[in-house]
Amino acid sequence: xxxxxxxxxxxxxxxxxxxxxxxxxxxxxxxxxxxxxxxxxxxxxxxxxxxxxxxxxxxxxxxxxxxxxxxxxxxxxxxxxxxxxxxxxxxxxxxxxxxxxxxxxxxxxxxxxxxxxxxxxxxxxxxxxxxxxxxxxxxxxxxxxxxxxxxxxxxxxxxxxxxxxxxxxxxxxxxxxxxxxxxxxxxxxxxxxxxxxxxxxxxxxxxxxxxxxxxxxxxxxxxxxxxxxxxxxxxxxxxxxxxxxxxxxxxxxxxxxxxxxxxxxxxxxxxxxxxxxxxxxxxxxxxxxxxxxxxxxxxxxxxxxxxxxxxxxxxxxxxxxxxxxxxxxxxxxxxxxxxx
Length: 340
Known about the structure:
alpha/beta, TIM Barrel, 2 domains, 32% helix
């Protein structure tokens, strides 16, 4: 008899434990390094944006990277305890991947936890040896075929923390594949499997429909009905493998929000305040000649007041622009003109 699944909106469903990489991630303590958009696999459900897919580009936390210093600086901005390296397939750009791992370990030390996602198509004994030597802590295989299992098993013998990460496709055939895969993973000593709620995006929606699935919001219909049956099977049949189902709402409302909140708090300017949603707010004022200079904050040639000082503007006819935005982002989320 296996373990009963636990659920919390900040974690999703899991039975035994959350992988170390996931624990840091849910706390917003990991940067996400998109190392390349190139991948030799052509998974029909891949949700990667058209801006990235098939292109040799690098991003960190959705910001375009011009040099490796941008990646290190982002880790400082969120006070990161680790990094997740993804793509595309990071193995396609193995030297770039190794360079990023080396630089992060050199800057933050060996306790800085780094995990990597790959399908395994390009993985061989030499690649695994190079990654282990470079300092990679955890490797996650996107196993879409049983042919990849010998590579997963080799990673186990080398000494990585090894997991599998796959989407949850709510069809009979795929759920049957997942069950059989889990049996094989337990046999070879894999520590965990992360199963992600299937994400519908601009780049995969046509394929999702062509495969007989019906989009519902950012995911597909019948997910929760199939998931309930699958988790019940796991409770009965899984003994030693940690199973984690990661919801889309977790990624957006927990993981992303907490990472942004850490950045907002760690990088806040003298003219800004941070919100609980991980955004910054600033209030820019004009016709300031009528204001007490003690409440004004000058920044890059413009004048601001903190929200806590706004009561001192009342009745003065001061024009102000209230702006909400993510830290270090040029995209304005909300903007409002007011007259006090």
